[in-house]
């Protein structure tokens, strides 16, 4: 074996080992972050919610809410620095790799004029969802507290159980092609319509770093209200 070939092989082995170590470190950090967010009390207490319950409101359509995680995490890092709360360590920690994530799926009332007019907490104050269920959906909603809260506040008004709610969110999420980089509002809407034929003719809404996509009761995309009053 020539000296040059031996050198090339040595370099290759070094880089390969570095790649394995990097992958191991990332995997370990992710597992640790997941453990941190689920091995804690992530229950949502209805009596502490500033808006409260409305189980009388009818559901006329749904709003699917997606959040741009880098913008959210930037705000959290400015607030907490390196001392992120455990609930944020998976989403905003050192191994943060999230782009557009699922904020929630909200049953909506077309007559609503404020948030409190929409269906909320329809099954009352619910117990914590099992961790083994939460863990399955952290790749799209990287926060146990978020998943628990969205289920209690919104999902319980349209679904019998949390897993059915999370599965529907995932189904809608996976029908969408989403950009992996930040875009201005107009460019974002253009990108979504160009890459998602089902959204070509519907009116989308946005709020800072979130997208709102609306669906009718048969899960077909529809125009979101021009005024976001009541979201």
UniProtKB/TrEMBL annotation:
<dbReference type="InterPro" id="IPR001568">
    <property type="entry name" value="RNase_T2-like"/>
</dbReference>
<dbReference type="Pfam" id="PF00445">
    <property type="entry name" value="Ribonuclease_T2"/>
</dbReference>
<comment type="similarity">
    <text>Belongs to the RNase T2 family.</text>
</comment>
<dbReference type="InterPro" id="IPR018188">
    <property type="entry name" value="RNase_T2_His_AS_1"/>
</dbReference>
<keyword id="KW-1133">Transmembrane helix</keyword>
<keyword id="KW-0812">Transmembrane</keyword>
<dbReference type="InterPro" id="IPR036430">
    <property type="entry name" value="RNase_T2-like_sf"/>
</dbReference>
<feature type="transmembrane region" description="Helical">
    <location>
        <begin position="7"/>
        <end position="27"/>
    </location>
</feature>
<keyword id="KW-0472">Membrane</keyword>
<dbReference type="InterPro" id="IPR033130">
    <property type="entry name" value="RNase_T2_His_AS_2"/>
</dbReference>
<protein>
    <submittedName>
        <fullName>Ribonuclease T</fullName>
    </submittedName>
</protein>
């Amino acid at each position: 074996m020539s000296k040059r070939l031996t050198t090339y092989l040595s370099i290759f082995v070094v880089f390969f080992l570095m790649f394995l170590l990097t992958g191991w470190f990332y995997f370990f950090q992710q597992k640790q972050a997941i453990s941190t967010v689920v091995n804690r009390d992530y229950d949502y207490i209805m009596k502490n919610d500033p808006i409260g319950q409305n189980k009388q409101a009818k559901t006329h359509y749904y709003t699917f809410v997606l959040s741009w995680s880098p913008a959210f995490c930037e705000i959290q890092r400015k607030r907490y620095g390196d001392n992120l709360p455990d609930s944020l360590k998976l989403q905003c920690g050192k191994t943060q790799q999230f782009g557009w994530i699922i904020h929630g799926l909200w049953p909506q009332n077309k007559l609503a004029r404020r948030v409190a007019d929409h269906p909320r907490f329809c099954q009352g104050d619910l117990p914590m969802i099992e961790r083994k269920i939460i863990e399955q959906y952290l790749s799209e909603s990287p926060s146990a507290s978020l998943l628990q809260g969205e289920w209690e506040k919104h999902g319980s008004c349209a679904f019998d159980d949390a897993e059915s709610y999370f599965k529907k969110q995932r189904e809608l999420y996976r029908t969408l092609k989403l950009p992996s980089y930040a875009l201005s509002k107009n460019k974002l809407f253009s990108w979504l319509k160009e890459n998602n034929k089902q959204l070509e003719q519907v009116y989308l809404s946005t709020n800072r770093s979130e997208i709102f996509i609306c669906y009718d009761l048969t899960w077909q995309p529809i125009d979101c209200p021009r005024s976001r009053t009541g979201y």
